[in-house]
Amino acid sequence: MAKNTSLSQAKKAKKDEFYTQINDIENELKHYKEHFRGKTILCNCDDPRISNFFRYFAQSFEHLGLKRLITTCYKSQDIDLFSTEGCEKAVYLIYDGDKNKNGVVDLEEIEVKPLKGNGDFRSQECIELLKQADIVVTNPPFSLFREYVAQLIEYNKKFLILARMSSLHYSEIFPLIKSNQIWVGYGFNLSMVYKSIYQNTEEANRKYVRSKGYDPDDNYIKVPAVLWYTNLDHTKRHEKLILYKKYSPDEYPKYDNYDAIDVNQVADIPMDYYGIMGVPDTLLGQFNPDQFELIGIGSGKLGRSIGITKNYRGRTDLSYTIDGVSKCPYSRILIRRKKNKV
Ligand SMILES: C[S@@+](CC[C@H](N)C(=O)[O-])C[C@H]1O[C@@H](n2cnc3c(N)ncnc32)[C@H](O)[C@@H]1O
Questions:
Q1: Whole-angstrom Cα Rg for the chain
Q2: In percent, how much of the chain has pLDDT > 70?
Q3: Is the pLDDT of residue 84 over 50?
Q4: Ligand 1 pocket test: which of 11, 16, 20 has the largest number of ligand atoms within 8 Å of its C-beta?
Q5: 58: closest CA among 5, 110, 114, 2?
Q6: Which of ligand 1's atoms lies nearest the C-alpha of 142?
Q7: What are phi and psi of 293, to 5 degrees?
Q8: How far apart are CA 58 and CA 166, in angstroms?
């Protein structure tokens, strides 16, 4: 039994072992430069030998005007079962910039310190490092996303992190989005190609690789529908979504079990409707909190919490009927236009 548990933990850990590419990091982080000046950055799920987050911040330390970069490296207990690149020993690194002013990051400028435990972001010694940080930037393990975010909120940290789009439906995450404590970054619904420890295994192909152009000899996996979650402000969040369509009851059916209309595409949000509307999740990629208010999410526990009752299939979800045929739309976020705003 114990062996099974540790094997399944190892399998779970293995799924988390893939690495963000430098261009994806640059593409997002260029929108937040003003936030980084004078700040201590923590990358707390990052083996500095592989992590491009570490590379990005170390190399642009002076350009961004950072105060300090701290990186912690996690040593999985089961790393020997699968990893060729994992840390043998949990350590943390401190980089305070190009002290000798030779324009490069020298090894002697990086302070490497041992950790007593395995570098788990939840351990007390890692929490002490978290307390020193102003902004946390990384791709944390997807499987621990709920706990990871809860800790950032508990310690009142600014952050910019990557995770799956589906995480926004978590009952722990959506309320934070609704209350504007978290929002999505620039990069939304990305199909990310990560460097992986998987060597073209069947498991990797089944679970991750969806790219038609995938080269089986390459050590890369494609993960669809990934996005950046953050609480750092950015300009896209203040852009007004231009609306063109006019409301008509025929074109926008009402749900059977909730007083809201269904909008099939973000571009079809009517400009003259101020009641509640169910819209696709992709609205969050263009969400301006001055233009719209988030009411809730259409399904499950969160749906029930705003009064969505069971529909004809016995599910808690939004549904509507056309010509006697009940249609279940895809996942919907419920929003309302703000009056007299942008
Ligand atoms: C998706 S990978 C991303 C790695 C790196 N942040 C990047 O983006 O290239 C997640 C990383 O989190 C590490 N990790 C897993 N569990 C962890 C934990 N409890 N505490 C800290 N790091 C953990 C894994 O070893 C893995 O390298």
A1: 22
A2: 83
A3: no
A4: 16
A5: 110
A6: 1
A7: -115, 135
A8: 31
